[in-house]
Every structure is written in C-alpha cells, then in structure tokens.
Specification:
The chain is globular, with a radius of gyration of 26 Å. The chain contains 19 helices and 16 strands. With about 450 residues, it is an alpha/beta fold.
Length: about 450
C-alpha cells in the first residue's frame, strides 16, 4: 500500500485493537490514524482526509447489534461518497456486514482477522479509491434475457412489433418476474430511447402525495410547498413513463389519472394552467386487473386505456432455461460490484439452482447469487455457497433421484459446518433451517 500513499482511518473502541492496527498498518501506508468513538468521525474525516476507513460495527453501547456501524457507514457515504469503507465484524454479525456492503461498504473483515487477508482487503480498497471507479455508486444496467421458452418467444415477437410505436403497454406477472426490466427493454427499442425512461413506483406513493408526484404542484399549493415542483408526467414529456404497481391506485384517484391520459395534459396542484404532455405509457402490475374491474375496485375505462397491448411475464419456474444465463449474469455483475475473486459457477451449482423453485422469481434468484458472491471464499461458486431454503430442497426432491439429492444435501451441510467451525447456530441460519432439523440431518449423515 505504500506505493499508493494511502491514508487509513481506524474506528474502534478497543484500545488494544487500535494499537495493533497502527503497528500493523504503519509500514505499508502513507498515514494511519485511530479513534475510539465515531462521535468524532466526521471532524476527523475533515482534518485527516483518509482514503479508506476501517470501521467497527459495534461501540460502547448497551445493545451490540451492529446497527451502530450501519448508521455510521450510511453517514460516511452520505457526506463522503468517494471514501471506501471496510467493516470489522464478528462472525455473528456477518449478515449485517453483508447488508453494509449493499449500503456501500467496500468489503468486511471478520474478527479475529488474518493479517494477510486484512492487508489484501485494504490494498484493494485503496486501489479502488485511487482509481476513482466508484463502481458501487452506479446501479448496474438491467439486461433482458429472453430464453427459448414458447411464452418468452411470443413476448419477444410482440415487443419487437410494439416497441417502435407509441401504443400503451400493460405488463403483468408475479412479483420478481422482471416487469421493470421488460419495460426498459421496450423503451430501449422505441423511438424515444434518446431520453431516459421516467419510472414511478405507485405502490410507494401515499394518497396525499399522489397528485403532487405525478402532476406536480406550485409554490404555496399546500403546507410545505415552498417551491414549484415538476411532476413525473411533465418530466416524461417526449419519452416513456413507466407506472409500476398500477393496481395499487385507490379508486377515488383513478379518475384523476384517467383524465390526464385522455386529455394528454396535466394541471399542477394549486394551478389553473394546463401543460400539454407527449408521453409513451407503460404500466405494470402483479394484480388481476380484470377481476378488480369486476369487483368494482378498478375503473373499467382506465383499464381499457392502459392495456392497448398486454404482456404477461411467466414465472421463473416456467422459464428454467433462463436460470443458467441469469446466474452467470448476476455473478459477473456482483463480482465487479463487490470486487470479489470469483471466476465462475460450477456445473453442480447451476444444476442445483435449476432444480429449485423460486417463489420470488428472478429477484429471489438474484439475491441468492448476490449473497453467494459476497460470502464465498472459492474462486468457483459451489452448491454449498448458495443458501437454499429447506422447502426449496424439498420441492426439488421430486425432480431428482433420492440418492443424488441426499448427496448434494450432505455436501452442503458438511461445507457449512466446516465454514462456521462447527457453530451450529450459524450453520442452521446459513442453511435457513431450524436447529432441530439440522440435528436430524447431522445424525442422518453421521456428521
């Protein structure tokens, strides 16, 4: 690290750890500073100006949950987004450290640490800081994988016909099937691709903010409206507007949306002037809008307005041919995002993932791969690197022979026991099974 002239800031309430790290790091760094409390973290950041912060997850508080480390990590990334943060954690806090990486931490080290691994982690963080890539700060671009199933082939043909037009599209499907990815693909192939698509998660809007967020407001329209605000419809003028979770709009607000779609103009809250809009509308929902219309919970005229073309994304269990491609795609994405030394995924791991039924669809598979990339110490991901819930294994039982399933299960359990040094609580948690179930498996396989 000396060639990088790096500056390391250690934040830990344990005086012995601070002294040890200063001795260990000093010969390899441009400068090392150590503080006992994060209360002086911000002021130290301003005066010391480190390249990397080595941050403990717990300090002198009554409840050592690791949440204090997450809080200060968030504050650091908010005020100093270019700084790389490496978390220090105990084995029991590893899930929190993983959450920390999702919030922007570069990596984590487990106490008691291995000096060589610690130095390598800090070296990588310093190189990342020096290079200025900041890859964690940019969201990866979603990629549409079509696969070869008849359903996806039909959708692709329809998209190729519809995308160049301004026809309104309604995308339906279970949670996690990739409705937002399909919406982006339609926009990418459209004549409006020169401008970014504007997306709105209807489900996250409260009724009080619905009109303001979609249509905008003028200064003084309501309490706290201190400035004019441009709504999403106006922001999407000349491009595509994607309304996700359209089925969550309350019935009494649906008429307001219908009026804008019919008139192709918006009036800001508190204003009398209408602004014409030119948008291409794509909506998505996991609800059965036809049933909602029959039950009087969704306006029939709005339903027909938004579904000129309807695309129904099948669940991942009906698109198993895509699993391998998705696993490789997500692995590459998270290897780059988290700077892991993972070269690929074993055929056995792919076979295991293909046999599982993903109730959360693509999103659940993606989360599973992300955890595996973060947690694995292997260059090639193995079946035991993936945390597969017991119910998924049971579902897979009918799809494989009893002997092959039991062999895979035994291999996964043995690897977990070895990884967590026989700590059965951590083993059970990593496998998403109860301790009694784990005991039965250990007895069954003679572990």
């Amino acid at each position: 690290m000396s060639t990088l002239n790096s500056r390391i800031l250690v934040v830990d309430d344990n005086a012995g750890i601070r002294a040890t790290l200063k001795i260990l790091l000093a010969p390899h760094c441009g400068a090392v500073e150590a503080i006992a409390s994060p209360k002086t973290l911000v002021s130290t950041m301003q005066t010391f100006r480190p390249d990397v912060v080595l941050l403990d997850m717990n300090f002198e508080t009554d409840i050592n949950t690791g949440n204090e480390g997450l809080f200060w990590l968030t504050e650091l990334k908010k005020q100093f987004p270019d700084i790389e943060v490496v978390l220090m954690t105990a084995y029991a806090e590893v899930p929190l450290a993983v959450e920390g990486m999702k919030r922007g931490a570069f990596d984590f080290v487990v106490k008691p640490w291995n000096n060589e691994q610690l130095m390598e982690t800090l070296s990588s963080a310093c190189r990342q800081r020096k290079s200025g890539k900041e890859s964690k700060e940019s969201a990866p671009v979603a990629t549409m994988l079509w696969g070869s199933s008849p359903a996806m082939t039909d959708i692709r043909r329809t998209v190729e016909k519809v995308a160049p037009t301004d026809a309104t599209v309604l995308i339906t499907g279970e949670n996690g099937t990739g409705k937002d990815v399909l919406a982006n693909e339609i926009h990418r192939l459209s004549n409006r691709a020169g401008k970014p698509m504007v997306s709105v998660d209807i489900g996250s809007l409260s009724e009080s903010l619905f009109e303001s967020e979609l249509f905008g407001h003028v200064k003084g329209a309501f309490t706290d409206a201190r400035t004019d605000h441009t709504g999403k419809f106006e922001l999407a003028n000349g491009t595509t507007l994607f309304l996700d979770e359209i089925g969550n709009i309350p019935l009494h607000l649906q008429s307001k949306l219908l009026r804008v779609l019919q008139n192709r103009c918006v009036t800001k809250v508190g204003d009398t002037k209408s602004v014409p809009i030119d948008i291409r509308l794509i909506c998505a929902t996991n609800k059965d809008l036809s049933a909602m219309v029959r039950d009087g919970r969704f306006r029939e005229d709005l339903f027909y307005r938004i579904n000129t073309v309807t695309l129904m994304l099948p669940p991942l269990r009906e698109r198993t041919d895509e699993v391998a491609s998705l696993v490789h795609l997500f692995t590459e994405r998270y290897v780059n995002q988290y700077h892991r030394n993972v070269k690929g995924v074993s055929d056995e791991a792919i076979a295991l993932l293909e046999r599982c039924v993903w109730s959360g669809n693509v999103r659940e598979l993606q989360n599973c791969v992300e955890k595996a990339v973060i947690m694995s110490d292997n260059e090639v991901l193995l079946p035991e690197d993936f945390q597969i819930a017991e119910n998924q294994i049971n579902i897979a039982r009918s799809l494989v022979t009893e002997n092959s399933l039991e062999a895979a299960e035994e291999r996964v359990i043995r690897a977990a026991v070895k990884k967590y040094n026989g700590n059965l609580s951590l083993v059970a948690k990593s496998l998403n099974i109860s301790r009694p179930t784990l005991y039965n498996r250990l007895k069954k396989y003679g572990i």
